Amino acid sequence: MGHPIRGGSLVLLAALLAACGGSGSSEDSEATRTAERIAHGGALAARVAQTHPACQAIRPFYWEVGDTRGVLAGGSVGSGAPGATTAMPIASASKWVWSAYVVQRRGGVLSDADVKFLTFRSGYHSMGALSCDDAQTVDACLDTGSNGRYTRLHDGKFFYNGGHMQRQAHELGLGAYGPAALTAEVSGKIGQFGFIYTAPQPPGGLIASATQYGAFLRRLLDGSLLLGRRLGDEAVCTNPLTCADAVDTPVPPSLSWHYALGHWVEDDPQAGDGAFSSPGAFGFYPWIDPWTRSYGVIARQRLSGEQEGFASAQCGYQIRRAWRSGGALS
């Protein structure tokens, strides 16, 4: 099945209903139906966030679901949970932002090299996690240890690693940029969302809040960012057990997701729902659901875990299912 996108808020609910209403009874009826769908989907999603085992396993966290108009449902779950505006390291969720920057900078027209960098097939895959600091530049980070190593035998094969994007930043002339300059450069192209690089690492150096990242996802949904028109494009297979062109993936081998331009496509034939996402190692998990034209964020931070992003994805999948059952706005 092809993607339709390719190439806790009672106050907001009331505002949406008022905004959608018109002088005609048909318009009033449609506004009521829309509000009912939002309310039903939001209530189901909230119940899932509180009670589903996959969500109980990742407490504490904040979650939200929305569309191009704003947040439609959400809240904090668990003792000490972050809020909508709590900023935190988002690790690999930074990759979606970097890809949006590259596509925007290129005016939507990517070179073959750009595509290889953004789909992790460039051969540059030796970068260590958290291997750079805020006093370095992009190139100094690339020159640290084996971060800049190129493996010819893996050129053209999927290998999940930040080294691809770090090398791409060098190729784009950003080698002398430190965190502040990188923040200004990326924000200058994609918009002022409040993202901040705390290390000169495009693939994983951002801190952000759910509110900030949600605003970014809304600009993907409404097409203001050119990547929003290319969600799912150039997708490659990622499971080494089922694909000869895949070498390494963080996704469990029981799943066969694809990887597009700086984001995952959760399209496993047996257990996928087709969402686009970018899970971070510490648990921050953003997604776009092309079927309901909605977005979602799970914001949490657990620095000791290695699979926290995937754990959040399991909860996010259940929240999406609940939202789809009652919150579709088409």
Sum up the structure in keywords.
330 residues; alpha+beta; Beta-lactamase; 8-stranded antiparallel beta sheet; 3-stranded antiparallel beta sheet; 13 strands; 36% helix; globular
Give the helices and strands, then pairings:
Layout: H1 10-20, H2 25-51, H3 53-56, E1 61-67, E2 70-77, E3 88-89, H4 94-105, H5 112-118, H6 138-142, E4 158-159, H7 163-171, H8 179-190, E5 196-197, E6 206-208, H9 210-221, E7 236-237, E8 246-248, E9 258-259, E10 264-266, E11 275-277, E12 285-289, E13 294-299, H10 308-327
Helix pairs in contact: 1-2, 2-10, 4-8, 5-7
Folded structure, characterized:
There is one protein chain. The protein is α+β, with helices and mostly antiparallel strands and 330 residues long. It has 10 helices and 13 strands. It is globular. The chain has a single domain, classed as 3-Layer(aba) Sandwich (Beta-lactamase), CATH 3.40.710.10.
Can you describe this structure in just a few lines?
The protein contains 10 helices and 13 strands.
Structural class: alpha+beta
Second rung of CATH, namely the architecture = 3-Layer(aba) Sandwich
Low-confidence stretches: 5-23
Average pLDDT works out at: 91
End-to-end separation: 18 Å
Radius of gyration: 20 Å
Q: What would you call the shape? A: globular
- Count of individual beta strands: 13
Total of domains: 1
Strand and helix order: HHHEEEHHHEHHEEHEEEEEEEH
CATH topology grouping: Beta-lactamase
CATH domain class: Alpha Beta
Tell me the major beta sheet. Answer: 8 strands, antiparallel
Strand order of the largest sheet: 2-1-13-12-11-10-9-7
